[in-house]
Amino acid sequence: MTSAGLDYSEFLRNIIDQTGIAHMSWQYPIMWAIAFFFIYLAVVKKYEPLLLLPIGFGIFLVNFPLVQLMGQSEQGFPNLFQFFYKYGIEWEIIPCVIFLGLGVLTDFGPLIASPKTMIVGAGAQLGVFVTFTGTILIFGIANFSLQEAASVGIIGGADGPTTIFLTQALAPHLLGPNALAAYSYMAMVPLIQPLIMRLVTTRKERTRIMKQLRPVSRVEKLVFPIIATMLIALLVPQVIPLMGMFMLGNFMRESGVVARLSDTAQGALMNTVTILLGLSVGATMQAEKFLSLKPVAIFTLGLFDFALCTMGGILTIKLMNLFLKEKDKMNPLIGAAGVSAVPMASRVAQVQGQKYNPKNFLLMHAMGPSVSGVIGTASAAGMFIAMFASVHAPLYVKDAGWGYVFMTLGIRFVGVFIVLGLLQVLMQLSCKIVSKFAKP
User: Fold this and answer.
1) Within a 10 A sphere around the Cβ of 140, how many other Cβ atoms?
2) How far is Cα 107 from Cα 372, in angstroms, rounded to an integer?
């Protein structure tokens, strides 16, 4: 029907075609359900709400037809969330700024007071390297490249910024599912870790009381970030953007002369970039990209990875106890904190320790492995980046060969122990030196 040359039916079709209703598909409701699930975890269960809430809402916002939040505008300018992603994630600025704030919030005192816990952070990387191999073996059907397998393997460290940093460097197209898996399992630490703790420890081990940590001087706390930065920059330069900012934040904290900068870094600045991080990660999970086999495999492997990393930290302490004097032996529960989910994993160790022995106070003891886990996970990420630094195309095991994979993987795993072992030795030497003139 027309009037003055106007076709009303065509006019109505054009109007309807400009709405999202005409372009709906079955994929969008599935993504809404996924978004609401993470929002539920944040709001109702209060699992990592600062991250899961903006991630969940970001997933919700980008999964509507015709919504222009990612990609480029017709004029060639980045849309809103694409702008956040490009300059925050793709340029790897947001993870480094978050590490600056984490450095301000971190107290290295427990680690300095008990240098032997440094090795626990290396042992807790067991799952990272096992999962790298498992990703290629078990999920060969998903056709993971070695770079993709490395980005999946780092999830077990339960360190979101490091996962994002490595994934962006090696497999940026997996950023959404990798980051979401890392933050999800980090949020579920209180649910997952207690079961693993009971599985690999005896009741006697869980009731072991550890002696009180010694006081740590201000000079020791100032020297540590300098020594750590030097060692990491020399041995694993690939992760100095992360660890350099982490150590800078800690040095700002311990210096006591830049209180305003410290407050900003751990407060307003960190909160702002956390919002941008959550939205950017959520925005990468558009239906056409997320609903495939690889994200399902990533979430499955991520759980396996996290469990192995938790187990690796606990077993490392059990092994160390074989060589320690009775008075110096450690409660294996604190090994679970080696996954670097600071400070949640330490709190879980404290709760589980008091459950089996009300006189057990493991919180500060667990902070040592937890902080070393941050360094260990970053070191593992640096090893992976170095492993593929000269490879500019996806590399598959059929091209590289299993001999190459196992040889380089073994070297990188040992490399993490070398980095943390040397840091432990240097830390002990510096403590002896400064203890001669420093007051607690």
Assistant:
1) 12
2) 11
Considering the domain architecture, whether residues 283 and 148 belong to the same structural domain is answered as yes
Domain boundary residue among 84, 104, 132? 84
59 CB-near residues (< 8 Å, 6+ apart): 31, 34, 35, 38, 282, 283, 285
Q: In 3D, which of 108, 114, 109 has the Cα closest to residue 329?
A: 114
Domain count, the chain: 2
Regarding whether 129 and 44 lie in a shared domain, the answer is: no
The length of the chain is 440
Query: What are the pLDDT digits (tens) for 154-212?
Result: 988 888 899 999 999 999 989 989 988 888 888 888 889 999 999 999 999 999 999 88
> Greater confidence, 380 or 9?
380
CB atoms within 10 A of CB 8: 10
Q: 195-229 as b/e, with b when 16 or more CB fall inside 10 Å? A: ebbeebbeeebbbbebeebeebbebbbbbbbebbb
Residue 398 to residue 19: CA distance in whole angstroms: 47
101 in the same domain as 75 = no
3-class secondary-structure state, position 173 = helix
Domain boundaries, position 34? 2-84
183 and 297 together in one domain? yes
What are the start-end ranges of the H helices in 154-239?
160-170, 175-187, 189-200, 203-206, 218-235
